[in-house]
Structure formats: C-alpha cells, structure tokens
Amino acid sequence: MTTADPDAIALLKADHRKVEALFEQFEAAKGAAKKQALAKQICSELTIHMTIEEEIFYPACKGEVEDDLLNEGYVEHDGAKVLIAEIEAGNPDEQFYDSKVKVLSEQIEHHVGEEERPSTGIFSLARAAGLDMDALGAQLAARKKELTAQFATAGAPAPETRTFTGAEVDKGVPVGKAH
User: Fold this and answer.
1) Distance between CA 172 and CA 166 in Å, rounded?
2) What long-range pairs does 125-129 form, CB within 8 A, spacing at least 24?
3) Is the N end or the C end of the chain the one with fewer CB atoms within 10 Å?
4) Beta bridge pairs of residue 62
5) Under 8 Å between Cβ of 87 and 100
6) What pLDDT score was predicted for residue 67?
7) Cα–Cα distance between 35 and 97 in angstroms, integer?
8) Residues 6+ apart with CB under 8 A from 96
9) Cα–Cα distance measured from residue 95 to residue 111, given in angstroms and rounded to the nearest whole number
10) Got the DSSP string for 55-80?
C-alpha cells in the first residue's frame, strides 16, 4: 500500500460520506437535468462501491464476521441494485423518480449504519478479527480505480444481483392509471 491509499475501512467510509453528500445535493436540487446528473453519479458511485465490497471486502471477511451480517449485506446490495436499475432507466419527469431516489437513500443509510455500527458492525468486526486493512485498502483502491475508468469510458453496466433468484413478479396497473 502507498501512503496515499487509505486502509480498507477508511476507503469504504469515505465512499459512504461521498454518497451521503450526493443524496443531500439531490434532495436540494432544482431542475430535471441537475437531478438526473446527480442520480447518475449516485448510481455509479454505489455500483462501484458495492462491486468492490462484494468482490474483495466481503470475501475477506468470510469466516471472520458472522455469516448472517455478510448475507444481509449482500441482500441489501441487491435491493439497492433493483432501485438503481429503475432510477437509471427513468427520468426526473416521471412520477416516482424522486421517490425511488429517496428510498434508495434510506436503504443505503440503513446499510451504512449496519456496516459502521460500533463494536457489532461489519467494519468493527473485521478490524477486530485482525484482517490486513492496509492490504485490503490497496486492493479496494486499485479495483475502484479500474471500475471508475471503465465506467467513464463505457458507462455503468446493468446492475447484477447476487442473492436474488429472479423470482417472477407481475407488473400491476401503474398507480394512477385506470384498471
């Protein structure tokens, strides 16, 4: 790890703070173009963050942090990915666009609280287990840099769920539409 690279938890927490600030900016934003740009940035930041957690951090925690906590983290990521796909496919002029961003914000706030909870959160338990946070930080930073460059040139890929089984759901009549 170079001195410029934060340890794993510092990097992940910095991502959390950045996305929280973006959600606040979205909440205050006026105009469809500004909202759409912020939503796109939120979705991209979250997609990169979830990818590095799922590819590197959570697997490193396996066997050191309770499986239930990690499993819940994966499922929470998948729930966020569904909303991200909806937001990315939508636009601010649609009836539920702002609501989807708001619910995503609330889901992420809950998820962050569980990861960062003192003593019993994933981050605290991972640190207490003695994981090499410097080495993990270097891996996370390298993968994040790679994904950021990839997204800048090719755009973000469609979200990929890891725990959802693809259960069939019926799309009902949209709210406000005649039966």
Assistant:
1) 18
2) 125/61, 125/64, 125/65, 125/66, 125/69, 126/8, 126/9, 126/57, 126/60, 126/61, 126/64, 126/65, 127/9, 129/61, 129/64, 129/65
3) C
4) 65
5) yes
6) 95
7) 10
8) 90, 175
9) 26
10) IIIHHHHBTTB-HHHHHHHHHHHHHH
Under 8 Å between Cβ of 73 and 80: no
Residue % of the chain over a pLDDT of 70: 97
- Which pLDDT tens digit goes with each residue over 82-101? 999 999 999 999 999 999 99
Gap between the Cα atoms of 94 and 23, Å rounded: 18
Transcribe the chain into DSSP letters: --TTSPPHHHHHHHHHHHHHHHHHHHHH--SHHHHHHHHHHHHHHHHHHHHHIIIIIHHHHBTTB-HHHHHHHHHHHHHHHHHHHHHHH--TTSTTHHHHHHHHHHHHHHHHHHHH-TTTSHHHHHHHTT--HHHHHHHHHHHHHHHHHHHHHH-PPPP--SS---------PPTTS--
pLDDT in tens, 15-55: 999 999 999 999 999 999 999 999 999 999 999 999 999 99
Nearest to 45 by CA among 69, 64, 25: 25
